[in-house]
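Quarterly update from the structural biology core.
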Amino acid sequence: MRNIRSSLLLAAIILFAAGLAVSGINMRHDKLLSERGVTEAAPETTPDSMGFVLTAVGDCTLATDITTPQEGSFESTVEALGGDYGYFFRNVVDIFASDDLTVVNFEGTLSNRGERQEKTFAFRGSPEYVNILTSSSVEAASLANNHSSDYGKDSLTDTAAALTNAGILAFNGASVATPVINGVKVALVGINALDPDNAEMTEEYIRRAKINGAQIVILYIHWGIEKETEPGEDQIDLAHAAVDAGADLVIGSHPHVLQGVEKYNGRYIIYSMGNFCFGGNTNPEDKDTVILRAGISVDENGAYIDNDDISFIPCMISSTSEYNNYQPTPAQGEDRDRIIEKLTERTEKIAPLPLRFE
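Predicted structure, tokenized:
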């Protein structure tokens, strides 16, 4: 009997210690999110209307493939900076800091484990590179893309852990991020539509998010064909289906170039954001990109308000046109005019839609 009591006492002590450890991790994660203005607690009251400002950018690849020349690579740039992680987003951090939520497509891995997969390009950066995001007011990252497991499943696990431990919301497939921002219940859904099985789950994940109480559903989806400047019919059909299922904003990636914008049933679809902080190429021919800024509001019933509060900030992925220095920068002069014209023309090929630029 004494042995049984001793065993029970030991088990109780172990469970208590485990509970303290989990509680400590959760408290640390909540504190980091709170410092970034993002909470995961439901609001107690609902005023007449609530809203938040979202900023979104395209592909952020914080690495260069090891099979390519390393001179001028992302890693060599990091090494030369000697720990100045704020360098990369220095020219846009004020924009990110002025919103309530900044979302990126994180295309690559942050890991020291795994083996390079058999593919043309594979990206693995140091877990310390997460400081590039945390020092630049980035609060959320989609891992729903074809490079999130470039070094196997372990590299995906490590990337998600590095982001989460730094207070960044990571989302991918069934792992939906559900922050409450300024009282609005939000679901961040990431879909890698290059995987047919994942693409088929798009509507289901959105419906689940709505059933679980999301007032706003933001879909970040990876699709299309690289370097294609117009969305394919499969993209358009899937985007429309996503909106019909309950998505309030659809943001696309993968083509590495800008594609047009559509408004469908009162919701905006940005078919491709292009690259942003892109370590995958030391000098890509097309360095044009944009920052999306969206003012999203719900009424007293929690329903999305169609207010057309959508604008774009023309940018270059590099602060110099001569090569890629991995420092995205708002475009000026002729560069700005070209990007505005480019996005406008590509939008008109889908359907007439006036765009607003900052």
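The chain is about 30% helix and 25% strand.
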